[in-house]
Design a protein that fits this description.
alpha/beta, D-Maltodextrin-Binding Protein, domain 2, ten-stranded mixed beta sheet, 2 domains
Protein backbone atom coordinates (compact mmCIF):
# COMPACT_ATOMS: atom_id res chain seq x y z
CA UNK A 1 0.00 0.00 0.00
CA UNK A 2 2.79 2.37 0.97
CA UNK A 3 4.65 1.53 -2.23
CA UNK A 4 1.54 2.21 -4.29
CA UNK A 5 1.01 5.54 -2.50
CA UNK A 6 4.63 6.52 -2.99
CA UNK A 7 4.41 5.62 -6.69
CA UNK A 8 1.24 7.67 -7.03
CA UNK A 9 2.92 10.67 -5.44
CA UNK A 10 5.92 10.37 -7.77
CA UNK A 11 3.65 10.20 -10.80
CA UNK A 12 1.68 13.20 -9.55
CA UNK A 13 4.87 15.23 -8.96
CA UNK A 14 6.12 14.40 -12.44
CA UNK A 15 2.79 15.45 -13.92
CA UNK A 16 2.91 18.76 -12.06
CA UNK A 17 6.47 19.45 -13.28
CA UNK A 18 5.50 18.57 -16.84
CA UNK A 19 2.47 20.80 -16.70
CA UNK A 20 4.56 23.59 -15.23
CA UNK A 21 7.08 23.31 -18.04
CA UNK A 22 4.32 23.38 -20.66
CA UNK A 23 2.71 26.42 -19.06
CA UNK A 24 6.06 28.21 -18.87
CA UNK A 25 6.24 28.25 -22.67
CA UNK A 26 2.57 28.81 -23.36
CA UNK A 27 3.21 32.29 -24.80
CA UNK A 28 6.93 32.86 -25.20
CA UNK A 29 8.14 36.45 -25.45
CA UNK A 30 11.44 37.40 -27.08
CA UNK A 31 13.21 40.68 -26.40
CA UNK A 32 15.45 41.60 -29.35
CA UNK A 33 17.86 44.39 -28.45
CA UNK A 34 18.23 45.66 -32.01
CA UNK A 35 16.11 47.08 -34.80
CA UNK A 36 14.35 44.74 -37.27
CA UNK A 37 16.42 43.25 -40.08
CA UNK A 38 19.69 42.56 -38.31
CA UNK A 39 21.34 39.41 -37.01
CA UNK A 40 19.75 39.59 -33.54
CA UNK A 41 16.34 39.90 -35.16
CA UNK A 42 16.94 36.97 -37.51
CA UNK A 43 18.23 34.85 -34.62
CA UNK A 44 15.25 35.51 -32.36
CA UNK A 45 12.60 35.05 -35.01
CA UNK A 46 14.26 31.94 -36.42
CA UNK A 47 14.56 30.35 -32.98
CA UNK A 48 11.00 31.28 -32.06
CA UNK A 49 9.66 29.72 -35.24
CA UNK A 50 11.59 26.51 -34.59
CA UNK A 51 10.32 26.37 -30.99
CA UNK A 52 6.72 26.48 -32.19
CA UNK A 53 7.44 23.85 -34.84
CA UNK A 54 9.01 21.63 -32.16
CA UNK A 55 5.93 21.98 -29.98
CA UNK A 56 8.09 23.58 -27.29
CA UNK A 57 6.09 26.83 -27.39
CA UNK A 58 2.46 27.35 -28.32
CA UNK A 59 3.00 30.89 -29.55
CA UNK A 60 5.79 33.46 -29.71
CA UNK A 61 5.85 37.26 -29.54
CA UNK A 62 8.76 39.54 -30.43
CA UNK A 63 9.71 43.02 -29.26
CA UNK A 64 12.52 45.02 -30.87
CA UNK A 65 14.29 47.58 -28.70
CA UNK A 66 17.44 48.81 -30.42
CA UNK A 67 20.21 51.01 -29.09
CA UNK A 68 23.48 50.95 -27.15
CA UNK A 69 24.54 47.54 -28.40
CA UNK A 70 21.43 45.85 -27.07
CA UNK A 71 21.80 47.13 -23.50
CA UNK A 72 18.66 49.32 -23.72
CA UNK A 73 16.64 46.21 -24.52
CA UNK A 74 18.50 44.32 -21.79
CA UNK A 75 17.60 46.97 -19.19
CA UNK A 76 13.93 46.80 -20.13
CA UNK A 77 14.04 43.00 -20.09
CA UNK A 78 15.67 42.80 -16.64
CA UNK A 79 13.25 45.33 -15.14
CA UNK A 80 10.03 44.01 -16.66
CA UNK A 81 10.47 40.23 -16.91
CA UNK A 82 11.57 39.26 -13.38
CA UNK A 83 10.49 35.72 -12.57
CA UNK A 84 8.82 35.28 -15.96
CA UNK A 85 9.57 31.84 -17.33
CA UNK A 86 7.89 32.84 -20.60
CA UNK A 87 10.57 35.41 -21.55
CA UNK A 88 13.95 35.29 -23.25
CA UNK A 89 16.35 37.86 -24.70
CA UNK A 90 18.72 37.41 -27.64
CA UNK A 91 22.31 38.12 -26.61
CA UNK A 92 25.76 37.91 -28.14
CA UNK A 93 29.30 39.22 -28.30
CA UNK A 94 28.01 42.63 -29.43
CA UNK A 95 26.05 43.03 -26.20
CA UNK A 96 28.98 41.85 -24.09
CA UNK A 97 31.15 44.47 -25.80
CA UNK A 98 28.60 47.18 -25.11
CA UNK A 99 28.45 46.16 -21.44
CA UNK A 100 32.25 46.26 -21.15
CA UNK A 101 32.46 49.70 -22.70
CA UNK A 102 29.38 51.46 -21.39
CA UNK A 103 29.14 49.83 -17.94
CA UNK A 104 25.32 50.00 -17.88
CA UNK A 105 23.44 49.44 -14.60
CA UNK A 106 21.87 46.25 -15.98
CA UNK A 107 24.17 43.48 -17.23
CA UNK A 108 23.86 39.83 -18.16
CA UNK A 109 24.72 39.00 -14.55
CA UNK A 110 21.12 39.95 -13.68
CA UNK A 111 19.61 37.53 -16.22
CA UNK A 112 19.65 33.72 -16.52
CA UNK A 113 22.00 32.00 -19.02
CA UNK A 114 20.13 29.57 -21.26
CA UNK A 115 22.13 28.72 -24.40
CA UNK A 116 24.78 29.78 -26.88
CA UNK A 117 23.48 28.96 -30.34
CA UNK A 118 26.11 29.58 -33.02
CA UNK A 119 29.12 31.52 -34.27
CA UNK A 120 29.27 33.71 -37.33
CA UNK A 121 32.03 35.68 -39.02
CA UNK A 122 31.95 39.23 -40.29
CA UNK A 123 32.47 40.38 -43.84
CA UNK A 124 33.85 43.73 -45.00
CA UNK A 125 32.02 45.24 -47.96
CA UNK A 126 32.09 48.30 -50.20
CA UNK A 127 29.48 49.62 -52.66
CA UNK A 128 29.72 48.01 -56.08
CA UNK A 129 30.84 51.32 -57.64
CA UNK A 130 33.68 51.79 -55.14
CA UNK A 131 37.23 51.84 -56.54
CA UNK A 132 38.31 49.71 -53.55
CA UNK A 133 39.00 46.13 -54.62
CA UNK A 134 40.82 44.59 -51.64
CA UNK A 135 41.40 45.20 -47.96
CA UNK A 136 44.97 46.19 -48.87
CA UNK A 137 43.47 49.18 -50.72
CA UNK A 138 41.68 50.18 -47.51
CA UNK A 139 44.81 49.74 -45.38
CA UNK A 140 46.83 51.89 -47.80
CA UNK A 141 44.22 54.65 -47.45
CA UNK A 142 44.22 54.19 -43.69
CA UNK A 143 47.98 54.63 -43.45
CA UNK A 144 47.87 57.85 -45.45
CA UNK A 145 45.00 59.39 -43.47
CA UNK A 146 43.17 57.34 -40.80
CA UNK A 147 40.24 59.76 -40.74
CA UNK A 148 39.70 59.53 -44.51
CA UNK A 149 38.35 55.98 -44.21
CA UNK A 150 34.83 56.05 -42.80
CA UNK A 151 33.96 52.62 -41.36
CA UNK A 152 30.33 51.61 -40.84
CA UNK A 153 29.26 48.84 -38.49
CA UNK A 154 27.49 47.92 -35.26
CA UNK A 155 27.53 49.85 -32.01
CA UNK A 156 30.69 51.15 -30.36
CA UNK A 157 32.53 48.31 -28.70
CA UNK A 158 30.86 45.68 -30.87
CA UNK A 159 32.72 42.90 -32.66
CA UNK A 160 32.50 45.11 -35.75
CA UNK A 161 34.22 47.99 -33.96
CA UNK A 162 36.86 45.80 -32.32
CA UNK A 163 37.73 44.19 -35.68
CA UNK A 164 38.25 47.62 -37.31
CA UNK A 165 40.43 48.74 -34.41
CA UNK A 166 42.46 45.55 -34.68
CA UNK A 167 42.94 46.08 -38.42
CA UNK A 168 44.25 49.58 -37.72
CA UNK A 169 46.60 48.30 -35.03
CA UNK A 170 47.86 45.51 -37.32
CA UNK A 171 48.57 48.16 -39.98
CA UNK A 172 50.54 50.29 -37.53
CA UNK A 173 47.80 52.94 -37.29
CA UNK A 174 46.63 54.39 -33.96
CA UNK A 175 43.23 52.73 -33.37
CA UNK A 176 41.95 55.81 -31.54
CA UNK A 177 42.20 57.79 -34.79
CA UNK A 178 39.87 55.59 -36.84
CA UNK A 179 36.68 57.15 -38.18
CA UNK A 180 34.04 54.66 -37.05
CA UNK A 181 30.30 55.26 -37.53
CA UNK A 182 28.10 53.00 -35.36
CA UNK A 183 24.61 51.88 -36.40
CA UNK A 184 21.88 50.30 -34.29
CA UNK A 185 21.16 47.43 -36.66
CA UNK A 186 22.20 45.66 -39.86
CA UNK A 187 19.43 47.34 -41.84
CA UNK A 188 20.74 50.83 -41.06
CA UNK A 189 24.32 49.80 -41.77
CA UNK A 190 23.34 48.28 -45.13
CA UNK A 191 21.51 51.45 -46.15
CA UNK A 192 24.55 53.58 -45.25
CA UNK A 193 26.88 51.34 -47.28
CA UNK A 194 24.59 51.23 -50.31
CA UNK A 195 24.13 55.00 -50.12
CA UNK A 196 27.89 55.60 -50.12
CA UNK A 197 27.75 57.27 -46.71
CA UNK A 198 30.65 55.13 -45.46
CA UNK A 199 33.83 54.02 -47.21
CA UNK A 200 33.66 50.41 -46.06
CA UNK A 201 31.13 48.55 -43.93
CA UNK A 202 31.21 45.43 -41.83
CA UNK A 203 28.58 43.10 -40.40
CA UNK A 204 27.74 39.41 -40.28
CA UNK A 205 27.85 37.67 -43.64
CA UNK A 206 24.18 36.72 -43.37
CA UNK A 207 23.22 40.40 -43.21
CA UNK A 208 25.28 41.38 -46.26
CA UNK A 209 25.10 38.25 -48.42
CA UNK A 210 21.99 39.31 -50.35
CA UNK A 211 23.65 42.57 -51.41
CA UNK A 212 26.90 40.84 -52.36
CA UNK A 213 25.12 38.13 -54.35
CA UNK A 214 22.95 40.71 -56.14
CA UNK A 215 26.02 42.70 -57.14
CA UNK A 216 25.10 45.80 -55.12
CA UNK A 217 28.09 45.35 -52.82
CA UNK A 218 31.59 43.90 -53.18
CA UNK A 219 32.94 41.69 -50.37
CA UNK A 220 36.65 42.28 -49.75
CA UNK A 221 37.43 40.23 -46.61
CA UNK A 222 36.05 37.94 -43.90
CA UNK A 223 37.18 37.73 -40.29
CA UNK A 224 37.53 33.93 -40.14
CA UNK A 225 40.96 32.42 -39.52
CA UNK A 226 40.83 30.27 -42.65
CA UNK A 227 38.95 30.52 -45.95
CA UNK A 228 35.34 29.42 -45.56
CA UNK A 229 34.21 27.00 -48.26
CA UNK A 230 30.71 28.51 -48.19
CA UNK A 231 31.96 32.08 -48.72
CA UNK A 232 34.25 32.79 -51.67
CA UNK A 233 35.89 35.79 -50.00
CA UNK A 234 39.54 36.03 -48.84
CA UNK A 235 40.28 36.27 -45.13
CA UNK A 236 42.09 39.22 -43.56
CA UNK A 237 45.03 36.91 -42.84
CA UNK A 238 45.27 35.96 -46.52
CA UNK A 239 45.73 39.66 -47.24
CA UNK A 240 48.55 40.08 -44.73
CA UNK A 241 46.40 41.45 -41.89
CA UNK A 242 46.84 39.38 -38.74
CA UNK A 243 43.27 39.66 -37.45
CA UNK A 244 40.78 36.88 -36.71
CA UNK A 245 37.57 37.45 -34.77
CA UNK A 246 34.21 35.68 -34.52
CA UNK A 247 30.78 36.61 -33.26
CA UNK A 248 28.37 34.43 -31.30
CA UNK A 249 24.71 34.64 -30.39
CA UNK A 250 22.58 33.01 -27.75
CA UNK A 251 19.65 33.52 -25.41
CA UNK A 252 19.16 34.37 -21.73
CA UNK A 253 16.10 33.94 -19.57
CA UNK A 254 14.60 36.42 -17.14
CA UNK A 255 16.03 37.20 -13.70
CA UNK A 256 14.78 35.16 -10.77
CA UNK A 257 13.26 32.22 -12.63
CA UNK A 258 13.18 28.81 -10.94
CA UNK A 259 15.38 25.86 -11.84
CA UNK A 260 12.31 24.17 -13.36
CA UNK A 261 11.61 27.21 -15.54
CA UNK A 262 15.28 27.42 -16.57
CA UNK A 263 15.32 23.74 -17.56
CA UNK A 264 12.09 24.19 -19.52
CA UNK A 265 13.69 27.00 -21.54
CA UNK A 266 16.89 25.02 -22.12
CA UNK A 267 14.90 21.96 -23.22
CA UNK A 268 12.80 24.13 -25.54
CA UNK A 269 15.92 25.63 -27.16
CA UNK A 270 17.49 22.19 -27.61
CA UNK A 271 14.27 20.92 -29.22
CA UNK A 272 14.23 23.94 -31.54
CA UNK A 273 17.80 23.35 -32.71
CA UNK A 274 16.75 19.92 -33.99
CA UNK A 275 14.11 21.38 -36.32
CA UNK A 276 14.65 21.54 -40.05
CA UNK A 277 13.79 25.23 -40.22
CA UNK A 278 16.51 26.08 -37.68
CA UNK A 279 19.15 24.01 -39.46
CA UNK A 280 18.08 25.54 -42.77
CA UNK A 281 18.57 28.97 -41.18
CA UNK A 282 22.06 28.00 -40.02
CA UNK A 283 22.98 26.84 -43.51
CA UNK A 284 21.48 29.77 -45.40
CA UNK A 285 23.04 32.38 -43.11
CA UNK A 286 26.42 30.64 -42.79
CA UNK A 287 25.98 30.38 -39.05
CA UNK A 288 28.20 27.71 -37.49
CA UNK A 289 26.30 25.73 -34.79
CA UNK A 290 27.88 25.85 -31.33
CA UNK A 291 25.21 24.83 -28.81
CA UNK A 292 26.24 25.30 -25.18
CA UNK A 293 23.70 25.44 -22.35
CA UNK A 294 23.19 26.43 -18.73
CA UNK A 295 26.20 26.71 -16.44
CA UNK A 296 28.68 25.86 -19.21
CA UNK A 297 27.27 28.75 -21.23
CA UNK A 298 27.59 31.04 -18.19
CA UNK A 299 31.29 30.16 -17.85
CA UNK A 300 31.81 30.83 -21.56
CA UNK A 301 30.20 34.27 -21.29
CA UNK A 302 32.38 35.16 -18.30
CA UNK A 303 35.50 34.17 -20.25
CA UNK A 304 34.34 36.07 -23.33
CA UNK A 305 33.69 39.16 -21.23
CA UNK A 306 37.32 39.09 -20.10
CA UNK A 307 38.58 38.47 -23.65
CA UNK A 308 36.58 41.37 -25.09
CA UNK A 309 37.66 43.66 -22.25
CA UNK A 310 41.31 42.83 -22.91
CA UNK A 311 40.85 43.38 -26.66
CA UNK A 312 39.21 46.77 -26.12
CA UNK A 313 41.93 47.87 -23.76
CA UNK A 314 44.63 46.73 -26.19
CA UNK A 315 43.23 48.83 -29.03
CA UNK A 316 42.38 51.87 -26.91
CA UNK A 317 38.60 51.59 -26.76
CA UNK A 318 38.67 51.58 -22.96
CA UNK A 319 41.34 52.54 -20.41
Amino acid sequence: MKLMLRHALVVLAAAVLTAGSALALDNLKFMIGANPGGGYDQTGRGLGKAMVEAGAARSVQFENKGGAGGTIGLAQFVNSAKGDGNSMIVVGAVMVGAIVQNKPPMTLAQATPIARLFYEYNVFVVPAASPIKTMKDVVDMLKKDPGAVKWGGGSRGSVDHISVAQIAKSAGVDPTKINYVPFQGGGEASAAILGGHVTVGTSGWNEMAQFVKSGKMRAIAVTAGTRLSEIAVPTLKEQGINVEIGNWRGVYGAPGITDVQKKALIDAVIAATKQKSWNDALASNDWFPALLTGDDFAKFVDADHKRIEESMRAVGLIK
